User: Which sequence fits this backbone?
C-alpha cells in the first residue's frame, strides 16, 4: 500500500475519526453514511472513475490503488488550503 501511495491499515481508525469530526460522515446503525457536506467533497475531490477503468479516457477503477492515491492527494491539497473546499 505504501508503494501505491495510499494509507496503511494503522491509519484507518484515525481517518474515520477525522471524517466524523469534520462532518463528512455520520455513524448510522453501525455504518458510515456520508453527510451532504461529505457528498459535496466527494464530487469535488474524486477523480474520474469507472467500474472497470475502461469507460472513459483517463478513468481509473473506483477501488484501485491509483484511484485512492489520486483522491487522497486531492483531499490533502484541500486540507492544506491549496485547493478550495467545495460548498455543501
Assistant:
Amino acid at each position: 500500500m505504501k508503494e501505491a501511495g495510499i494509507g496503511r491499515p494503522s491509519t484507518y481508525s484515525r481517518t474515520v475519526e477525522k471524517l466524523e469530526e469534520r462532518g463528512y460522515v455520520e455513524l448510522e446503525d453501525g455504518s458510515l453514511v456520508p453527510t451532504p457536506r461529505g457528498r459535496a467533497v466527494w464530487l469535488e475531490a474524486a477523480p474520474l472513475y469507472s467500474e472497470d477503468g475502461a469507460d472513459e479516457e483517463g478513468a481509473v477503477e473506483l477501488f484501485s490503488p491509483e484511484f485512492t492515491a489520486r483522491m487522497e492527494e486531492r483531499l490533502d491539497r484541500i486540507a492544506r488550503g491549496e485547493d478550495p473546499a467545495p460548498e455543501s
